[in-house]
What does this fold into?
Amino acid sequence: MCGIVGCVGEKPCESFLVNSLKNLEYRGYDSAGIAVFEGDKIKTVKAKGSIGNGLVPKLEAEGSLKAVAGIGHTRWATHGEPSDINAHPQGNARVSVVHNGIIENYRKIKKFLMGKGYTFESQTDTESVAKLLDYSYNGNPVETIASAITQLEGAYSLGIIFREHKNKVYAVRKECPLIIGIGKGEMYLASDMTAILEYTKEYYTPEAGEIAEVTKDGVTFYDIHGNVVEKEIQIAEWDVTAAQKGGYEHFMLKEIHEQPAALKNTVTPRISDGVPSFEECGLTDEMLRNYKNIYIVGCGSAMHAGMVGKYVIEDIARIPVTVDIASEFKYRKPLITKDDLLVIISQSGETADTLSALKLGKEIGADTLAAVNVSGSSIDREAKMSVKTLAGPEISVCSTKAYMVQCAFMYMFAFRLAYARGRIDKAKCAEYTEKLLQIPELIQECINRKEQYQRVASKLVNASSLLYIGRGLDYALSMEGSLKLKEISYIHSESYAGGELKHGTISLVDEEMPVIAVATQTSLYSKTAGNVEQVKSRGAKTIVICRDSADVNPNIADYIIRLPETDDLLMPLVTAVPLQLLAYYTALDRQCSIDKPRNLAKSVTVE
Ligand code: F6R
It folds into this structure.
């Protein structure tokens, strides 16, 4: 949600700024801009629209810039519509700022500064930060930033340049991601590592409130009192090719194809003596035995992975699990106590609501266990225990492989929990684990059956609304399938527990309403088939997603998508694939912007 970058070196920085911003475009694409040092002035070029359609043509019209230092921004609009004026950088002749996050008290700051004679052009919260920096300026950038941030409420990572401090870039963060990259003869700043992977793998992560002063020779970190802070260099585990399309038409399609490897990478290193082990993060069997309740929190697809976890944990470990949408958890006064475990699920590790839920759990004294895909992210660092899901960088805004490994984590956790609590013996735990290790082959088999999804997608392409139904684990999957479809194809869809249809929703069903029934759970198949029959008799086009062996009545299913089989318990890992590919091919047929759906951004760092 907004991406920021910066660069200081010896050669012109324009191409770095544009290229690294393009790598961050999944964080927002409403507008983009850069500010660089030109002579003794700051030069700003910014435009509404994507980088390719807005900023790049404007820069071409300018002729190539010679500047060796500057900052850049790609925006997901929070305050003010997408426009040239509201694009970042924001500032004036003295100071220029790029910002990811939200300044909650910006109106108060703006009012104060207007009282001091400042005028404002944009509707952004960021302009208040830039003008507050100008107002606080005392000739020393570090002191100025330290003074200004004490007045900011909210979340931010900021890249800042001051006209009088040529070829230096400053940065500071609170609750939004920021890294400082170390290049050869040049230094970078970025919202995340994928922006700069092709330039370096070495980086620092500033803590909240630490101010980075970046020059071409290195970076110095200061605390809020101006004391120098020493930091350790970190090395990115990801390879640059992992963040490229590698011949696929879309990142989403590439990431769907990467799922067998992502699952294997996440599961295999955590198997010890045939069963999952979480010793790497300090989670012992004794702890697992003592928890009274499990709470699982996440947003969107991460929360849906938590739903899969709930069904599996309650089934085999017999301990109560509550799954919460992170933004609801923190405001609903949850009953979690210090005897409970809070499991936090997040791909980015930066989702603002999920991070606040984690902090609330910690405050209450519950143990916290995170499953994150980005090492060193805020949630990774904040949680008491953290397990890295090893999907590699996920670039498509629509989550696929990250969801898959989040589910895989939930399974490993459930198996170990059930074993530690004596609900299953070691042999059963090893048997489940063995079946989990066979899932990558089944995922591959599902991917190979793409014609089935393409055929059904071509029938959905003109729908304006549809329903996903399922029961038990199939219901958890129908939630994810519905989200995938609406997110990238813009077709309205809802997911319902099959049994709920008759309590209101079935009145929506007519010839215009396709119904997709997820029916992979053997013990629930006949019940879901009954629901399909009910909607079919009301005119709906029906699509049944089921096992290879399911005996589907041809009179109730207009289309059947068949899946390779495993235990009921593990079927979600297989079922996710056709749901993803159905959404993908429908969006493709509708010529939607698949990797960057409208109005969305990856890594939602604002509430
Ligand atoms: C949907 C999707 C989102 C994310 C959600 C949480 O395809 O990608 O629903 O799952 O924004 O993001 P993380 O996992 O980064 O906390």
In short: The longest strand covers residues 95-103. The chain has a mean pLDDT of 96. The chain has three domains: 3-243, 251-439, 450-589. Residues 299-302, 346-348, 351, 354, 398-399, 483, 487, 603-604 surround fructose -6-phosphate (CB under 6 Å).
